[in-house]
Specification:
There is one protein chain. By secondary structure, the chain is of the alpha/beta class. It folds into 3 domains: 94 residues, Arc Repressor Mutant, subunit A (Orthogonal Bundle), CATH 1.10.10.10; 136 residues, Aspartate Aminotransferase, domain 1 (Alpha-Beta Complex); 222 residues, 3-Layer(aba) Sandwich (Aspartate Aminotransferase, domain 2). It is built from 16 helices and 16 strands. The strands form 4 sheets. The protein has an 8-stranded mixed sheet, with helices on both faces. A 4-stranded antiparallel sheet has the order 12-13-16-15, covered by helices on one side. Strands 1-2 form a two-stranded antiparallel ribbon. Helix 7 packs across helix 12. It is globular, with a radius of gyration of 23 Å. It starts with 16 loop residues before the first helix and ends in a 15-residue tail after the last helix. 43% of the residues are buried.
Length: 493
């Protein structure tokens, strides 16, 4: 404790105590008071010394991890990242905008802005009345038990309901293999804590979900990007690099991948499982939006084909339910149960009891199935409007693939044109898109962008697409040298 005697937390300030602690620890790290790979004080010990709740210290340590200044080992503690001290502050500032963007979950936009950047449903689609009815039933039935600490692994009846739900997707599971989580992002964080040590290599699709990239970076992982093709990950590169790098895990989104919207062929699903088995590597399957197929075809999750427990399956209910109610689950191989439980406990102890019990009724009484069908029909109409408007309004030089489902489409500009320039020009017109470079770990993606129709009402989709099409026509006529890259953007992923 000698090293932190200078820490002083002022309860009279508006700044939360955990934020004050974070900034003071951050300064001590930058000054070299703590050395690379040195263990930070145990949470309870530091909380006792400072006279604060343990959660205050937990939150401060989490923020250090997010900025790449620290990493945790399950069951051991939190340690200083072995990053060169001169590089550390640069890293923190470079990542700050993206981290803040992720924490918000959405950007603040004006009411008249047409938001093709967000993949969050419009509030009119939230099942408020159904939810209110079932919440009241849960409160009448369970009373105060709803608000006590829940089982770390999750409400057991809900885990039973999830097992029955998974049978529809040919996934065999047990109550013990289900871990309830507070959204898919937490699932990725839990996997990272349970599996990744500083310096471990992990593979991701390129491009991929930004939240996963940041979670893996926070653990100090070495990230290797494997290009994704229209029918799934590039198997040639995967096979070549997996022998070379021996990754701890491969993170994939096989159905309507974010951001590309691509879906894996059955052949590639089988092959990636064979490769994982041969190299004793875990596959983390993030089942993003597999329910939202608009073509009538269905595609089994990787987990349904996994007979050797190499797949860690993550599924969120939030995206097509009510995003503010963070809820999802993981199907965890038996040999990882204890590590996952420990990581869940250090994340938030347990997921909301009220949300878990209410959603259990949703599943048991098939209200969830009805809601999925309702959302699929609403989104199908938006999807058809969106794709029709693209065909009518977008210049032929801009390439894209009809995903046949999901909530977004991935675009490729001609060589030499900038995604950030398109973003800036659209923003001036009152339209938001997402620059493709945000979906890469490195500096790739400068000629791609993503658009999602999830947050745009049907009566504005055609108008918004026409506006983006007009921006693209004007930019292409001016030539690739026109404009300059724009700094400081932070659209939602």
């Amino acid at each position: 404790m000698e090293k932190i005697v200078t820490i002083h937390l002022d309860r009279g300030l508006d700044t939360p105590l955990y934020t004050q602690l974070f900034w003071q620890l951050r300064s001590l790290i930058k000054e070299g008071v703590f050395q690379p790979d040195e263990k930070l004080p145990p949470i309870r010990m530091l909380a006792s010394e400072l006279g604060v709740n343990s959660i205050t210290v937990v939150n401060a340590y989490k923020q250090l991890e997010k900025e790449g200044l620290a990493y945790s080992k399950v069951g051991s503690g939190t340690y200083i990242s072995p990053v060169n001290r001169d590089e550390r502050s640069t890293f923190a500032y470079e990542e700050a905008d993206d981290l803040r963007m992720m924490e918000r979950g959405q950007i603040s936009v004006k009411g008249d802005t047409i938001n093709f950047a967000s993949a969050t449903p419009t509030p009119d689609l939230f099942p408020v009345e159904n939810f209110k009815t079932l919440v009241n039933r849960v409160l009448d039935r369970d009373k105060g038990d709803v608000f006590g600490y829940q089982q770390i692994q999750g409400f057991q009846p809900l885990r039973q309901s999830i097992c029955m739900y998974l049978e529809k997707y040919s996934i065999t599971s047990s109550v013990d293999s289900i871990q309830v989580i507070s959204g898919a992002q937490q699932g990725i964080d839990i996997v990272s804590k349970a599996l990744i040590e500083f310096g471990d290599c992990i593979f991701i699709e390129s491009p991929t979900y930004r939240g996963a990239i940041e979670a893996f970076k926070s653990r100090g992982a070495r990230i290797v990007e494997i290009p994704i093709e229209e029918d799934g990950i590039n198997l040639g590169e995967l096979e070549q690099k997996i022998s070379l790098y021996n990754p701890k895990l491969v993170y994939v989104m096989p159905n309507f991948q974010n951001p590309t919207g691509y879906s894996y062929s059955d052949e590639k699903k089988q092959r990636i499982l064979q490769i994982a088995r041969a190299h004793n590597t875990y596959i983390v399957e993030d089942d993003f939006l597999s329910e939202l197929s608009y073509t009538g075809s269905t595609s089994l999750p990787l987990k349904a084909l996994d007979h050797s427990e190499n797949v860690i399956y993550i599924k969120s209910f939030s995206k097509i339910f009510m995003p503010g109610l963070r809820l999802g689950f993981m199907v965890v191989p038996g040999r990882l149960w204890n590590r996952v439980l420990s990581a869940k406990h250090t994340s938030d102890i347990s997921t909301s009891g009220l949300i878990q019990r209410t959603f259990d009724l949703y599943l048991r009484e098939d209200v969830w199935v009805e809601h999925i069908e309702y959302m699929k029909e609403k989104y199908r109409k938006r999807y058809e409007l969106f794709m029709g408007a693209l065909r009518d309004s977008f210049p032929g030089e801009v390439n894209y693939k009809d995903p046949g489902g999901g909530l977004h489409v991935w675009f490729q500009l001609p060589q030499g044109y900038s995604d950030e320039e398109v973003y800036a020009r659209c923003l001036k017109k009152g339209v938001l898109i997402t620059p493709g470079s945000l979906f890469y770990s490195g500096s790739s993606g400068r000629s791609h962008f993503r658009m999602s129709f999830a947050s745009v009402h049907s009566d504005r989709i055609v108008k918004g697409v026409k506006m983006v099409g007009s921006v693209l026509e004007e930019y292409l006529k001016e030539g690739a040298a026109a404009g300059s890259q724009t700094e400081g953007y932070s659209p939602f992923m």
